[in-house]
Amino acid sequence: MGEAMKEINEKIYEVARLIVHANRVAVFTGAGVSTESGIPDFRSPGGIWSRFDPEDFTIERFLRSKEVRKKHWQLLLEGGFFDQVEPNPAHLAVANLESLGKLSCVITQNIDSLHQRAGNSPELVLELHGNMRWLNCLSCRGRYSLEEVRAGQREATEAPACEQCGGILKPEVVFFGEALPEHTLKKATELAGIADLFIVIGSSLVVYPAAYLPMYAKEGGAKLVIVNRDETPYDSLADVVISGSAGEIMTRILREVIAISRH
After folding, report:
1. Across residues 96-107, what is the average pLDDT?
2. Of 11, 61, 141, 172, which is least surrounded by CB within 10 A?
3. Average pLDDT for residues 48-67, to the nearest whole number?
4. Which residues, listed in sequence order, are joined to residue 97 by a DSSP beta bridge?
5. What sign results for the dihedral spanned by CA atoms 8, 13, 16, 21?
6. Is 115 an active-site residue?
7. Where does 102-158 show beta strands of DSSP type E?
8. List 115, 129, 183, 263, catalytic entry
């Protein structure tokens, strides 16, 4: 066995041991988890930025321009990259941590709802950037499921309006220029602060304020684990850093957790 493989095996065992002995495990996921389900990173070739002007995703332009809202609606009608995707082994491993009674929360930067589809309880999933499942009326605060609206608007060329008041419907996703949902961020901050183990999976940890959460966890006394393909600004603060595929690494960690728990 090569030295590199031996080192990864030791790290995987160490993370599994940390999970087994932890009472409150907080998991934080980013785009590196979604990409393994076939969802392009927004900035990668084939991602949204290669097809749309990033300025069209500012709240200011969305509110001002009927044409921009129409573009968004066409994206939602097409499925917005999310219709044909399935949870991958990383999502399933996180769901299994909940089944084992170890998970206090999943804090995610992703908007694809794949954690819930993998089996995580919706009340444990904190979506910092919102999700693509719902549309909100900006006037009367009415809320509609995307599927409900799409079913009645398949042939529509204009963006739909609120049935109740005719107001603008906006995807329940955080646009540029919008604050993160205050209640969700507050709860994520609280849970990070009381976690005894904080596991980052597939995040570069460069988008703030979400990227402060590992620091809150460390300040609260948690062990910090980072599983990511590339380096992050928090690597030097982490107790364990494993570079590799989120799905592969998390599957192996889960296998070790189960093996240790049996002894």
Report:
1. 97
2. 141
3. 77
4. none
5. negative
6. no
7. 103-108, 125-127, 130-137, 143-145
8. 129
